[in-house]
Design a protein that fits this description.
The protein is of the alpha/beta class. Helix content is about 40%, strand content about 15%. The strands form two sheets. A seven-stranded parallel sheet has the order 3-2-1-4-5-6-9, with helices on both faces. A three-stranded mixed sheet has the order 7-8-10.
Length: about 325
């Protein structure tokens, strides 16, 4: 391991044009840190006064030719770029997971090592622990990924740990906050259009975290000497049922709560039927995996980062929802 705990003066952020990347770049720049940003997509959506970095490189980092000089003059790398959302199980999907989550990470580590980068922060996922459960999982639980995303994130984690750099790995659950995309955005839109089913209160427990706390945690770990070599879960410190999450969204939308709910046994029955159809090799829209995403648990304990580094979240869902809703529906 090299030196750690030194002042953060210059940073490379991959995936800089994304949901997390933009917020991290803004936080770093606000604190006077020189930021070199890289992303495979352009940033035409930003105004000239809203550029949160000193240099921006548009490049496909899976191309080895993109790497020469990328880490020159950089003391800290924040590696956020990844293929995150499952779109299927085709050979192309699996190849993309491998290229974007594993090969890209390995090449970036090689460049960081050659140029003397002092700290390497890697954003991973709770999916390396599996698909989640009711009892809260911790950093000490064994990695048992079930999806291509989880498996490639774990492989990338292992490469990061073997690099010889001062590293910190942060594993995140579902991330919310202003500008959120993906499943949570779709849920908010469906509830706003009154097309979301009145789910039962199954008492499931899901961990979430605000994007602003994720980027705070990344910067905190980059500057804290005790974070070197460690892996941390980051959550907002609470557990939410899907029923409670939907209720919070309705409150933020100023919509009434439903007077009835669909019984859980109907969802379980539909999932069982779906599993039977899957065994016949036919496509389905609802099976056990979909049931788990909707009404199952994925609960995590993030006390380690608080106890070891003194980090605690600032945001919780209720205070973030009004701004989220406004950004999605305006």
């Amino acid at each position: 391991m090299g030196d750690s705990g030194q002042p953060l003066r210059s940073a490379l952020v991959t995936g800089a044009a994304g949901f997390l990347g933009l917020q991290l770049c803004r936080l770093l720049q606000k604190d006077g840190i020189r930021v070199r940003a890289v992303d495979r997509v352009g940033v035409d959506f930003l105004t000239a006064t809203d550029v949160p970095w000193d240099d921006f490189i548009q490049a496909d980092l899976t191309d080895p030719e993109s790497f020469p000089g990328l880490c020159d003059g950089i003391d800290t790398v924040f590696h956020l770029a990844a293929k995150t959302h499952a779109t299927g199980a085709s050979a192309r999907d699996l190849a993309d997971y491998e290229a974007l989550n594993v090969v890209l990470t390995g090449r970036l580590l090689g460049q960081a090592t050659k140029t003397g980068v002092k700290r390497f922060l890697f954003t991973s996922s709770v999916k390396v622990l599996g698909e989640g459960q009711y009892e809260p999982q911790t950093e000490s639980d064994p990695a048992r990924p079930e999806s291509a995303y989880g498996r490639t994130k774990l492989e990338a984690e292992n490469r990061v740990r073997a690099s010889g750099l001062d590293i910190t790995i942060l594993r995140m659950p579902l991330i919310y906050g202003p500008g959120v995309k993906g499943n949570l955005e779709n849920m908010i839109r469906a509830i706003a259009r009154r097309r979301f089913p009145p789910l039962p209160d199954t008492g499931n427990r899901r961990s979430l975290v605000d994007a602003r706390d994720v980027v705070r945690a990344l910067k905190h770990c980059a500057e804290h000497p005790a974070a070197a070599g460690r892996t941390y879960l980051v959550t907002d410190g609470r557990w939410y049922s899907t029923f409670a999450l939907a209720a919070c969204i309705r409150d933020a939308l100023d919509l009434p709560q439903p007077s009835w709910t669909i019984p859980d046994f109907l969802f379980r029955g539909a999932a069982a039927v779906g599993e039977g159809v899957v065994k016949l090799g036919l496509p389905v829209v609802f099976d056990q995996s979909v049931y788990h995403k909707l009404l199952g648990s994925a609960c995590y304990n993030s006390l380690a980062i608080e106890q070891e580094l003194g980090f605690s979240p600032h945001y919780q869902l209720e205070q973030s929802l009004p701004e989220m809703v406004k950004g999605i529906l305006d």
